[in-house]
Amino acid sequence: MTETAPPLRVGIVVFDEVEVLDCCGPFEVFSVANRVAARHGRRAPFEVGMLATTPEVVARGGLVLRAHAVLGEAPAPDVLVVAGGVTDAAERDAALLDWLAVAAETARLTASVCTGAFLLAEAGILGGQRVTTHWEDQAELARRFPSLHVESGVRWVRDGDVFTSGGISAGIDLALHLVEVLGGRDLALGTARQMEYRWIEAPAAPAAPLG
Length: 211
What we know:
Elements: E1 8-13, H1 20-39, E2 46-52, E3 56-58, E4 64-66, E5 69-70, E6 79-82, H2 88-91, H3 94-106, E7 109-112, H4 116-122, E8 130-131, H5 138-144, E9 149-150, E10 156-159, E11 162-165, H6 170-183, H7 185-194
Parallel strand pairs: 1-2, 1-6, 2-5, 6-7, 7-11, 8-9
Antiparallel strand pairs: 3-4, 10-11
Pfam family, one: DJ-1_PfpI
Protein name: DJ-1/PfpI family protein
InterPro entries: Class_I_gatase-like, DJ-1/PfpI, INH-QAR
């Protein structure tokens, strides 16, 4: 993106029983990237916010998160990020799924963290792509959506303009990769350094130790 372009709107979709790090990890990455950019005299490249069907959601472990906007009341995101967690109820939320389908049509990039891939699949956004999710859920994703090519042993997968990541901490690695794609490698490296995070840059790095 150029210095004269407006900030890219990053919408992180959350819901009751969302995994805390699935949403807060990417949120931290994009917000820190803004601070790093400002330190170097650049305008903020991202406008990041949490989006939900209700003003507040209760994450796993009981953490209460207040959404920046309710779905449908905010501008469509340029970058759509769907967090994971316990998605059973969210997968039955027709309003959420319909909104995701529409938002993905206009988003520049669409991404999921962990079991957020199930929401993308239920919304009809995934079909025939290479994808991944948390290692515990890969077999279930493949069983329920046989057209998908579910990959194991990876931190994230990119297929076209759709990105999916493994579980929990893998969402941070993917978010840093998205910062690199959208804002440049120097910004991504500076963000990881500011976060004191050892960025696993290679998507083929193991998603989690098995056994």
